[in-house]
Every structure is written in C-alpha cells, then in structure tokens.
Write a structure and sequence with these properties.
By secondary structure, the chain is of the alpha/beta class. The protein folds into five domains: 4-196, P-loop containing nucleotide triphosphate hydrolases (Rossmann fold, 3-Layer(aba) Sandwich), CATH 3.40.50.300; 204-330 and 529-550, P-loop containing nucleotide triphosphate hydrolases (Rossmann fold, 3-Layer(aba) Sandwich), CATH 3.40.50; 340-413 and 497-513, Orthogonal Bundle (Arc Repressor Mutant, subunit A); 417-491; 563-628, no CATH class. The strands form five sheets. Strands 3-4-2-5-6-1-7 form a seven-stranded parallel β-sheet, with helices on both faces. Strands 8-13-12-9-11-10 form a six-stranded parallel β-sheet, sandwiched between helices. Helix 7 links the parallel strand 5 and strand 6 (167-172). It is globular, with a radius of gyration of 29 Å.
Length: 630
C-alpha cells in the first residue's frame, strides 16, 4: 500500500502537504470522525481524496453545488482516478448505471447532492457498497446557525445508518464556535477530532472604501494591471452592467451568472481560468471549487450578509500565497439594503399563515389530511393565483421549510429561462412574416418586458399558458419552436420544482412554529449584519485581526498591509515628526493655532498637529489655543 505522501506525489505531483492536511488525513485513516476548518484555498479536497485512495472502498462526497461536483469529478478523472456524480435532473438510467459502477467496479469517489441521499435507489445501492468514508463538504450548511443553512443537509445523519462503518470527514472554510458545535450535533459525530487552521491570510491586503462610483474605483485599481480578478455584485443585471463599464475603460472583462446557458458559462469560466479574460463579474456563487491559484484581486460592490460569506469570497484571492488585494466598495444605500434584506428574511406570522393556507388551497388539501405525494410547484403560478408578492412569499416558503413544515426540491431555485436572440427591430420584421407566432411572441413581451432582449429572464410556462389561454404543453412546444428558429434561447427547467408537506395538514392559524428558535436566529442574523456594517465602517482596527477575532482566534496581531494598518503606519510617521519638530523648535504652551501653523508649516498639516495633542488627553483646544488640561 502506498503511503499518503506517495499518493500525493503520484496523483498530484506535490512534494509535500500543506499545513493541517496531514493531520486531517491521519485522523481519517485512524477511523475517527473528523471536523476540519480550513480557509478557502487551504486544500480541503486533498484531505479526503488522499485517504480515499489509500484505503479500500468508496468515498461518498456530499456537496451542495452541481457545478462544484462536476468540476471535482473532472479533476479526478484527469488524474486517472475513477469518480462520478449523481444529482437531480440526471436521467434515471444514468443514475442506475452510475450506482452500479460503485457496487461492482473500482470506482472510488461518488459525489452526491444532499437531496439525492434518501432516494430508494441510493439507499439500496449504498447498502451493497463498501463505503469507507462519508465526506461532508461545506459542512456549515447543516447548521441553522451557519451562514448558508440547507435543510437537505439534515438528511445526512439519517443516511449514515445505511453505511454504519464509515468515518465521517466534515470540512468547511467558515464556522464560528456555535456553528462548529451544531455541525457535530447534527452529524452525530462520535468523539470527533476537531482540527483548525489559522484564519489569518498573510498575503491578503484588505481595503474597504465608501464610494458611489464603484465600477470606476475598480477601473482605477486595475489601471495598467493585467492580473486575474473577480468582481462580486448583487444581481445578474449588475454583472452585465459592470462588465460593460470595465470594457469601456479598457479592462478585459466578462460577466457570469446562473441565467446563462451551460455552454456560455463554461466558455466564460474557461476563458477566465486560462487568463484570456482578466476580470469575471459574477454573483456570489462563482469561484467555489474552481482551482485557480493566481487570482490577484477580489472586489465586492455590495456588503455581504455576514463575515463568513465575506471571508469565503475574499479567500479566492492569492491561493498561491503571493501578495493579493481585496476591495469592498460600499455606500449608505448598501447599508440600508442589508438591513431591509434582514427584515425580509423573517416574514410576520400572518404572512407565514397566509402562505401556508394558500398552499393548502392550491393543492386542495383537507385539514388533518396527511399528503404523502410530492407536488409539482410553480412559484410564479402560485403567487399569480393568490395575488401574493414574490419576495415575501419566497422568504415565507424558506422559513416554513427551515421549520420542518414543508420541503422544497433543489430545482425550486432553478426555473426555466429565456432570452431573445434577435433585436427588437429584427423581431418586428420577423413577426410580419410569421403571423402564426406573432401573438405568442407579443405575449412573452407583455409578461417579461424589454429586459428579455438583453438578459436571460426566469419564466413560468404555467403563467405564460394562462395569459396566452393555452395548455402549458402547447406553450412548451411554441417555446421549443422559437428556440429552433433561433428567435429565442430557451433553457427548459431540468426537472420540475416540487414541494412536499411534512406531516399532517395543519391549521394555518396554529402552525407548529418554534418561535424561540426563529427569534434567536433572527437575533443572530441581526448581529451578523451589524458586525458586517461595523467592519466596513471601522477606521481603527486591523481588518484581518477583526476577521480572526470573529472566528474565535485570540490575540490576533496586525497584518500590516490592510487599509487600517497602512493608515496607522503613516500616522506613526507623522507623530514621530510632530514630536521631533516640537522639541527642535522648543514649542511653548499655551500655543495659538497660528504659532502651531508656523512651527509645522511645510512639514505636517495643522489638523494632524491639533489632533495629536488632543488625542493625548493632556491638552484641549480653547479660544484658538492649545491649553494644558486640568
């Protein structure tokens, strides 16, 4: 049997392990449940892939993003390691064949989305596999106290009973003390070994600046620079607008978001990875799992919801250990938006009751019934039928899900999308020649407006069918026809979103809500938002030290390279100059402002001089003179 180091050299070509990797591998090989906290770029995948190759049997890897698992499977296959993934939307036959490979063949790594764990096919095949490791990537997703809670992760501990001899390896880049304890509890880890790497990133220089001209600020930073960069923005529309502005400024940039076609996303990601495109402008999911070490800059044009998400995103810069810079540009509007989003995430009880009652009416569920079936769910159709608003309804559904009252399928957040591939003028000319489809294209424009010409829009075939007065099946055929004619680009939803009622149908006015838990979670989220706002607005404390404090690292020293540390260094130079000049000129007190200005003219600005003496608490400014304080 090859040693861990021999496997590392054989498949990855690395001469040795990074800090903490070997400790995690040794713990896993000793059959101990292990929770590992490693910053983004710390090499988490090596920590389960090496022991997975060293030991006999299969490693089942649970990860939340399909793009992430596809990328990791590709990387393993490129190294000659047998790996595969199953996820929602795959044809039944493909899933069946893939699972057979792990029962009968010498496949080593099976990547699974958490939603697939408790399917009958997965359970029965798992019982036949020799499963050695159960790997939980992005483990903070299992905790309601984490920054990215996924109810589907709660299925993991139930799934573990079907492979009782496994060792669990739980990995995350961001978890506070309370989240760590909850991960251990929810995964039912047995006497776990908890291993943590320092959250300090010595090569990252962090800057936070208030400005209303954010895109221009990026262009100024990147002027005459050619290194790779990521820009994070809040919306899909902003990705396109920011990329276009940067291009006008002479910066090689492109945009990326989930509404693009798979082909276009892959092409743009590859162009950026290969440094054909310098800057990629994206929403926050971009970069997760991408093995690109030479990102020199990460920009945020909004304030992230919490420190964990922010730390994870800036951690995508400088993974090669070389000096890198991260910038957060914000305005007062961003602070107000962050506070508004917090309120939206916790709808009033009345909204929860109204949403639940509407769901029951939608599916004609009688009080006290116990619906076992999974129902197809179209959010746009649902809110149209009951006159609900999209954003409050979305957050009400998510809160009902977190309370264990309903369960939404993972395709809930991935509806169909479409975009016109012709201009408005070209469409008009085409309509004149194609009267049979003219009314249908006009219906699309009436529902979704002019934005459908510039960007992919999320659509509802059911809503279109209602407005067009035709069955949904007819609408799909018409959309397919327009796609074939290259009038639109239609991305059909891979699988229909579904909703499952957990338990009996409740009285909507007496939902079994855990108000204590909801109140505590809201208080924690409110604290996270306030911490984030304090962080960006703070003027005195080292940025990296603040992040280390947040993650529980005590006695964090200054980084010396963030905006605060650089400002402090400049101030220390000014202080030394004030003390030196004051002694040389034998400055006497009380001293008038005019005396001070004459003494330090050309050397130090008067404002710095006055603040220096007042900040020492020994002096005060009165009637234009510095006086000794009593």
């Amino acid at each position: 049997m090859l040693s861990s180091l021999e496997i590392l050299k054989k498949y990855w070509g690395y001469p040795g392990f990074r800090p903490l990797q070997e400790d995690i591998i040794s713990s896993a090989l000793a059959r101990k449940d292990t929770l590992a906290l490693m910053p983004t770029g710390g090499g988490k995948s090596i920590c389960f892939q090496v022991p997975g190759l060293q030991e006999e049997g299969v490693s089942i890897v649970i990860t939340p993003l399909i793009a992430l698992m596809k990328d990791q499977v590709k990387q393993l296959r490129d190294r000659g390691i047998r790996a595969a993934a199953i996820y929602s939307g795959m044809p039944h036959n493909d899933i069946d064949r893939t699972l057979d490979n792990f029962v009968l063949g010498d496949y080593k790594f099976l990547y699974v989305s958490p939603e697939r764990l408790l399917t009958e096919m997965m359970i029965e095949r798992t019982k036949l596999m020799n499963v050695r490791f159960l790997v939980v990537d992005e483990a903070h997703c299992i905790s309601k106290w984490g920054h990215d809670f996924r109810p589907s992760y709660l299925k993991i501990k139930e799934f573990r009973q079907f492979c009782p001899k496994v060792s669990v390896i739980a990995l995350t880049a961001t978890a506070t003390e309370i989240t760590q304890k909850d991960i251990i509890k929810q995964l039912e880890l047995k006497e776990p070994v908890v291993l943590k790497m320092s959250f300090k990133r010595n090569n990252l220089a962090i800057f936070c600046t208030e400005t209303t001209t954010k895109a221009r600020a990026i262009a100024q930073v990147l002027q005459d620079k050619k290194e790779s960069a990521i820009v994070y923005v809040k919306t899909r529309k902003q990705t396109q607008e920011t990329a276009q502005f940067l291009k006008k400024c002479g910066v090689s940039a492109d945009f990326y978001h989930a509404g693009l076609t798979n082909e276009l996303r892959s092409a743009r990601q590859d162009a950026w990875i290969n440094n054909e495109t310098q800057v990629i402008v994206s929403t926050n999911a971009f970069g997760m799992g991408i093995d690109k070490a030479d990102v020199r800059y990460v920009f945020h044009l909004h304030i992230p919801q919490n420190m964990e998400a922010y730390y994870q995103e800036i951690g995508r810069a400088g993974r090669d250990g070389k000096p890198s810079e991260v910038y957060l540009f914000y305005s007062e509007v961003d602070i107000e938006a962050l506070q508004l989003q917090l309120e939206q995430r916790y709808p009033a009880v009345e909204m929860l009751s109204k949403t639940y009652q509407s769901l029951c009416n939608y599916y004609k569920l009688a009080y006290g019934s116990n619906p076992q079936d999974r129902f197809d769910f179209d959010l746009n159709d649902f809110i149209t039928v009951f006159g609900l608003k999209a954003i409050p309804t979305h957050f009400a559904l998510k809160l009902l899900e977190s309370q264990g009252i309903i369960e939404l399928s993972d395709s809930y957040m991935a509806p169909s999308t479409l975009k016109f591939t012709v201009s408005n003028t070209e469409l008009y000319k085409w309509q004149l020649k194609n009267e049979t489809l003219e009314a249908f294209t006009k219906t699309l424009l009436r529902i979704y407006g002019g934005e459908i010409f510039t960007d992919f829009c999320m659509i509802s075939e059911t809503e279109i069918a209602r407005v067009y007065h035709s069955p949904a099946s007819t609408v799909v055929k018409l959309l397919d026809r327009l796609h074939q004619l290259k009038i639109i680009h239609y991305r059909k939803q891979i699988s229909k979103p579904g909703i499952h009622f957990l338990g009996n149908r409740f009285d909507a006015q007496k939902l079994p809500l855990n108000f204590k838990e909801i109140k505590a979670k809201k208080a924690q989220d409110e604290s996270s938002v306030n911490l984030m706002i304090d962080y960006v607005q703070s003027k005195r404390r080292c940025r990296m030290a603040q992040l280390q404090d947040f993650f529980g690292e005590e006695n964090a020293g200054n980084c010396g390279i963030c905006d605060h540390c650089k400002t402090k260094a400049k101030e220390e130079i000014v202080v030394d100059k004030i003390i030196r000049i004051g002694k040389e000129m034998e400055l006497q007190f009380p001293a008038s402002l005019s005396d001070l200005e004459k003494t330090f003219k050309g050397e130090v600005e008067l404002e710095y001089v006055v603040h220096f003496f007042i900040d020492r608490s020994e002096w005060l400014l009165s009637d234009g003179k510095l006086l000794k304080a009593n």
